[in-house]
Structures are given as structure tokens and as C-alpha cells.
Amino acid sequence: MNFQWYPGHMTKARRQMQEDMKLIDLVIELVDARIPLSSRNPDIDELGRQKARLILMNKADLASEKQTKRWSDFFQNKGYYVVRLDARARAGMKDVNDVIMEACREKMERDRKRGIKNRPVRAMVVGIPNVGKSTFINTFAGKACTKTGNKPGVTKGKQWIRLNKNVELLDTPGILWPRFEDQRVGLHLALIGSMKDEILNIDELSLELIKILKENYPGILEERYGAAETAEPPEILMQIAENRNCVKKGNELDYSKAASLTLDEFRSGRLGKITLEFPKEPQ
Length: 283
Ligand SMILES: Nc1nc2c(ncn2[C@@H]2O[C@H](COP(=O)(O)OP(=O)(O)OP(=O)(O)O)[C@@H](O)[C@H]2O)c(=O)[nH]1
Prior knowledge:
This protein has 283 residues and is α/β, with parallel strands linked by helices.
């Protein structure tokens, strides 16, 4: 039997977003620049049709610059406005503002022709849990008007935040759920740390990471861990355990420790700027 597990709170959140969509002109969708496809839910295309669309490639500080550029082109070719971003820094916010104004110009022009003056453009932030929605709203609005945290689901309350005389932002972001049913999506979300590690097999996860690194980022495992990249992932993990002195009592190699270390270093960016997904066009 093939059925979809879709708990009540997700259905409720989706319905809420459907309602909120009626109030807005522009959808600001955050994706994780390291996994631009897995961190999206295609439902948003249905929910946000006929709205101006902006994709913020967030956590770009952790992603490969080359791949972020390729993804930006990919999304732009599909008709989205795109800005790369580190939501914690104020630096990229001017670009966001400029693009919001550009995305809304058409609507303001339409209003003007109809004799409606100075009606602010209304926008809403959407994205999957932990993608940086609250951080973005806080930084962009310039004050702590929504709670942020690194646990999914901390965002509560609802009101409009006036960003400037032209733009208002709904303070409550819309939450979409990723497509768990796709295994690759689950894997990539787990790799970036968007799932509880307790329910994951860390050793397996690190082997998947090593495989992606070996195939797409030649030199990185050798440089950081002194591992021979011609080896298979389990052998590489063993070399990491050896070279990083991951041992248990009795001097036995501790693979789980090496696995956690590798994942931590990837997630924190210490391993470098790494994107896990690539657009289909040639590199
Ligand atoms: N490196 C990096 N970390 C970020 C960035 N934006 C947000 N974060 C971190 O990501 C974590 C999640 O950010 P939140 O703003 O709470 O994410 P959210 O989408 O509101 O999460 P929910 O409330 O679960 O829906 C926090 O630890 C942030 O500090 C970014 O651009 N770069």
C-alpha cells in the first residue's frame, strides 16, 4: 500500500499559508544554498502562483560560490528573482531590498494606473524548518521582532512589519515541509543537520558525505584529513579516524567519533564551502 504520512500540524500550516497568500503580492522563499532543491517544497509553486517570486539562497556563506552562482542562474531562468544571502549579516540586505522593489514595481505601476496611490507592497517569507526564516526577518527588519532559535518550529505570533514606506512584511513566516518521501531529500537534509541526529545512523551518513566529497570536491579529504581519495568511503573514514586520533579504550579505532567529526566540520563550514546538489546543466 502506498499512502502519504501527513500529520495534522502540517495540514494546518499549509491551510494557514493558503489564507496568508491572499493578502500578499510577493513570496520571499528561503532555500538552503547547500541543497537548493531538497530544501524546497514544490507546493509553493502552486500556492504562490500569480505572485511575484523571490528566492533567497540562504546560508550561502557555507555553500560553494561557483555552485550558488549556477543555481542562481538556474532559478532566474525559471523566472524567479534570486539573491544569495547570509541571513545573519546585514551585508546582503540592500540587494534584497532592491530586488523586492524591482519585483514589486510592476504591481505598483498597476496600482498607480488604477488610481491607487501609496499602497504598500505586501510580502511573506516562506520556507522549510530551520532554513533561516526568523533570522532573515530579524536581520532584515533590523530589530528582534521574531524569535529565532536552532530548533524547528519556534516561530509564533503574527503582525505586519513595516520595512519602509513601500513594503510591509508578514512577521510570521509560512512553513512548508520538505518532501520526506524522496530518500535523496531526506539524506541531504540529514547531512546539513536539519533532522535530529538521534534518529540517524551517523556512520552511514558520514559515508554518504565522503562519497559526495570524493566525487565532487577533489583534494578536500586529502587536504583536511590526509586521506587517500582513491580509496572507498569506509577506508577513507578509517583513515580519518587514524589521522584524527579517534580511538576507543584499548586503542581500537572509533569510527563513530570520526563520522561525527566529519559531519560537524562539514556543517560548521570548517571543511570548506560545500554544496551537495548541482543543477542539471553541464558544469
Ligand atoms: N551559517 C549560517 N547560518 C544561518 C544563516 N541563517 C540562519 N542561520 C542559522 O540557522 C539556524 C536556523 O535559523 P532560524 O532563523 O531559526 O530558522 P527558521 O527557518 O526560522 O526555523 P523554524 O522556526 O524552525 O521554521 C540558526 O541557528 C541560525 O543562526 C545563514 O545565512 N548562514
